[in-house]
Model the fold of this input.
Amino acid sequence: MADIRIDYYPTHEHEGIKFRRGHTLPFGATMVPNGVNFSVYSSAAISCTLVLFERGEAQPYAEIPFPDEFRIGDVYCMTVFDLDFERLEYGYRMDGPFKPEEGHRFDKNVILSDPYAKVLGGRDTWRAQPNWDDVYPYRSRLAFEDFDWENDHPLETPIEDLSIYEMHVRGFTSHPSSETKNAGTFAGIRSKIPYLKSLGINCIELMPIYEFDEWENSRTNPKTGELLVNYWGYSTVNFFSPKAGYAATGKFGMQVDELKTLIKELHKNGIEVFLDVVFNHTAEGDHRGHTISFRGIDNKTYYMLTPEGYYFNFSGTGNTLNCNHPVVRNMVLDCLRYWASDYHIDGFRFDLAAILGRAQDGSPLSNPPLLESLAYDPILAKCKLIAEAWDAGGLYQVGSFPAYGRWAEWNGKYRDTVRRFLKGDTGLVGEMAQRLQGSPDLYPSRGPTASINFVACHDGFTLHDMFAYNEKHNEANGEDNNDGANDNNSWNSGWEGETDDQAINFLRHKQIKNALTILMVSQGIPMILMGDEMGHTQLGNNNTYCQDVEWNWLNWSLVNKNADLFHYAQQILRFRRAHPVLRSPTHFRHYDYVGSGLPDISFHGTLAWRPDWSAESRTLAFMLCGSHAKGGTIRDETIYVALNMYWEPLHFELPTLEPGLKWHVFANTDMANSEDIHQIGEEPLLENQAGFFVGGRSVIILVAK
Amino acid sequence: MDFTITSEVVDKVAKLKLTGELDSLSARVFQKEIEKVALESPTELVLDLENLSFMSSAGLRVLIFSKQKMGVGLTIYIVKPQEIIVDTLEKTGLQHSVNIVDQYPV
Done:
């Protein structure tokens, strides 16, 4: 054919397969005219063999040793001709020393996955029983790049305008009540886009969707006989491949198309897509774990090792990826660039990101090259980068994570402060004032957009359980309730667990509404956990990583059962989007810089203009001046919020408005259904403009118009 | 079931009738047939799938290939596909690139 370049003609042959010297870059397997270019790096292997399988066959049909002259530096590269792109599965054997004390664990008997594989076979259908005797369980495959994105590109919504919804692909639509055709898959999420829009969020953050193995550490709960699996997926097998078992078409190998279709459709509906990415460790575990890829390809490069050759365990899961090794750093960069450009991903949340700032010996770096590279990367320039700014090795960097003007953080201090304030702890009013403003104490120069605010996330109690349980109840995990966090800052509202007591249930709903309200009126970026808008419970389990069971899936009948919660969540999300004064990209200045007669933010207490900062106080009110919205660039209504976490009602004197404006009631969580929150624009006039009796453990929002 | 394919091109309309199971091996036959009819630069591609019981990812790829080969001006009609094939087209987003119809002419 005329369009085949002459340099793609084969020069070598092995067992009837034709090949030639390949290109060193890009790493991985790349389709080229008439063939596939393979390129793989290993700093310490002495030889490498390419292993080729027909899809699903037990034994390889060919093994081609890389001729010595095909190695350039530490990179083995070869172009092989006449391969069937659809049916090919490939892997590598690496020969080299097995000397753990020197960091090497080569084993040429193991067929290794390509760290740069774009599709991985072997776990094609969720929880389908694997072939445990497979000589090559996680099989590298090729991905096609022919997806038609039409005019789609990442949305680039200003980060302060986002409301994030953290979700689990499987948990979202697996429950029978979801009535989804493709339960628990990317296609299932697509069918629920109308729901996400009606809720009012504009960004979803998917818990790990890189290929992982749900069978990793699977076991049976001795008490219940239930199978426990790796449900959350915080254990990466391959960084470039989407989880096949999360695609209804995974068994056809079409997971790439299905995921891209979902992202395209979400973008059409104005919803951004963030990925929760796990670069701190891999599924290979410690020295007792399986060799899947990295360990056998170049153990010393990919992992942080102790001087004795064991694995540092800053992740709490056995090993630690050696992120600040220049080669590993490039892999992380290549990976994120791939997801940003090929999947149009809008942002990334980095699991245990403090690890990414550790040196190869584990010590924290003041100027970590990986974090700097990500912050300044041209392809990631418009992506949101969010750090979980701590790790399991005790490094806690909330407020001090190396940000380079780019990185935002999961604000763990926001979560802890708001939870304690909600349950009535004292001594928190001053700190609450900081959290409501986007934590200027933590991010003085970075602005409120550095703060991802949340009260509940996948890790810990759901919002409902935070007000229904004092203690965790993780017995179902089969670890004698020893797993999961103990510092939940929760309060059961008077009874441990579910109850028919109407007063307790009213209080629980009120507390959920209080939490959602505080979240939505705080500067920074709010994130809510899937199901919290409808009172989802995990029965007091605060660590459901292994629970692929009905009670852990989102029960959609709660939308009706807890209709008041769902309605409240919808309205409070709309309120945030309708009021730019709640979404400032910069910190408040605490004075009037536009001549409106009011400072941008002012604090109040039961007396107007006199907040009670005392140690015993449980009240705080604040007023946001609408003329100062987004730094005075947009006019909005002035908003007043009063938080009363004392158990009795208290009278709050209201700040006097300029002539012509009156206070209207948007929300009052102490009221019963339908009176608790109003339509935007239809807020009823407040009768007594001078003051408001705010119920015990209640929040009100007033708007001036 | 064995895969068979027939084709004809009349007045810039290419009609292909596919029968049996379109797996990754038979997808090559399908692709060859597409390449053959492409030589006559059709503006419409009509695929009769009434008797096609399975379409693999490789078969779906050939649909994408058809557009690439004959240009975005090509209109693709898929006539009477079975439910399982429609389902796969929907899940992978390919239903936006084709017209699923009960008969041709529409």
